[in-house]
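Researcher: Structure for this, please.
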Amino acid sequence: MEKIRNMLLEPLDRLRDKIENNEKIRAAFRLGFEILAAFLLGALVAVCGFQSVTMQESSMEPTLAVGDKFFINRLAYRISEPKRGDIIVYKTNASDDAALHIHRIIGLPGETVQIVGGRVLINGGNLKETGDYPSISNAGLAASPLTLESGEYFVLGDNRNNSEDSRYGDIGVISSKYIVGKLWFRTSPASSMGFM
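Model: Predicted structure, token format:
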């Protein structure tokens, strides 16, 4: 029995010895393992964390143009809260067929948003923004003070006078449960490719 066992295991032992003694073979196995691990990690991140989206409307011009393509970071708001100024992708309801919209967060939970004289007020004070946005001609729902509840966000498009956003009843305030993710990386056009 021992003799048969040795006959079966002897070729495997010789192969193991060759691999252990041959640095090139060991390096090739190590490289193959590293490539496989990187591929599996990349596939997992792509499937679980990222989604692609194309800008379909002019509501974010000139920041984003119609036809621009992006990756959405779907994990961003699982580890942190949305912030003012973030450009988010969201749905207006829970339907899988609901259209995706892209807008900038202006108002945060617990804040009161109002648009007066073309300016955005947060809790009665002027909103300080880094962009050069036009004066708003239609305050919509925000003509009167609008207080956001827990998990609610007020969004505007950067093209303030050509954007259907939280000022309109069809969109309204955005519930955190309908936020798909944060706009993360522009993939097209190539001349504008990069992180947002």
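Researcher: Any notable elements?
Model: The two ends are 68 Å apart (CA to CA). The CA atoms of residues 15 and 56 lie 59 Å apart.
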